[in-house]
Amino acid sequence: MSTPSILLIGNCVIDDIYRVPNYPAEDEELRAESYRRALGGNACNSAQILASLGHPVTLAASLADDDLGRWALGELDLHGIDTRHCVRLSGFATPHSSIWLSAANGSRSIVHHRNLPELSLQHLQALPFAQYDWVHIEGRNIETLSALLPQLEPLRERLSIEIEKPRSGIEQLISACDSVVVSSQYLRQRDISPEVCMQEFKRINPRARLVCTLGKQGLVATDENGQRIRIQAQPVNTVVDSIGAGDCFIAGLISRLSQTHVPAKAQTVERLQDFAKSLEFANHLASLKIQHQGMTIGDHI
Questions:
Q1: What averages of pLDDT result for each successive group of 10 residues across the chain (301 residues)?
Q2: What is the mean pLDDT of the chain?
Q3: With b meaning 16 or more CB within 10 Å and e meaning fewer, what string describes 29-60?
Q4: What is d(CA 43, CA 16) in angstroms, rounded to the nearest whole number?
């Protein structure tokens, strides 16, 4: 059986990453221990991981027609990521982040600048969704996605969405997706527990498989029948690079769900076991990622 093909829709960012001995105090001048430039953005990070796992990967994202945009396209090509559905826009700047990675505790602090329109509804509607085995959407650009997702109803069993942070109307996007990943940032900013979040989301989409990632506390999930799954984070001796750990988790989950997709008519026990194994793999992959630099960790599995 061929490796499932994946289409990811979302953000592509340029990250300038400075490794610093500790988080600087206000008005402090601090010398970085190292510096590197890398591709970033949620969907772009997940695409890199999926490509390193051997999946044919296509990214649909906006890029400015500038030097950083050209650099990003070159890097995506080196990773083997198909960019035919990326859009180049003149008169704007490719999104850019400055990231401080603390050697003291592995934390990362991000300053982000964006001056670039999101993908248009017309562009998204023209994407050949049926050609892909799985489609993942980064939950942003809410108004446009709200118009798009009802048209993808036939694909809902192989459609996933990330809910990273509270945005007006974002919760309604889950009604058309059967796999939903909710970040700890979303829970923290709304000040709600995973249980409350899953109850709310189940009322919107009773058939959804929901995952709440909790960082060092692992994850809590529920399948389409409401069966609860709790998985602890794997022990990590040394945090080398925490950037994109959540994006790595999503890539691992997509990889396994796309390979072990169980039809809705299958037995409940079989579907629950399949979902739990996919979560365990994604959890394992995220723990490996934070022990290695960058987003290509296929060789470390």
A1: 89 94 91 94 95 96 95 96 96 94 84 94 96 96 95 93 95 94 96 96 94 92 92 81 87 91 47 80 88 69 59
A2: 90
A3: eeeeeeeeebbbbbbbbbbbbbbbbebbbbbb
A4: 17
Interacting residues of 17 by C-beta distance below 8 A, sequence separation 6+: 35, 36, 37, 38, 99, 101, 243
Q: Which pair of tokens denotes residue 9? A: 């829709």
DSSP 213-280: E-GGG-EEEE-TT--EEEEPPPP-S-----TTHHHHHHHHHHHHHHHS---TTS-HHHHHHHHHHHHH
Residue 41 tokens read as: 């953005």
Model pTM?
A: 0.91
Question: Which domains can be identified in the chain, with CATH numbers?
Answer: 6-23+33-300 (3.40.1190.20)
**Assigned token pair, 172:** 């309604």
**Rounded Cα gap, residues 84 and 82, in angstroms:** 6
Q: What is the Cα–Cα distance from 122 to 248, expressed in whole angstroms? A: 29
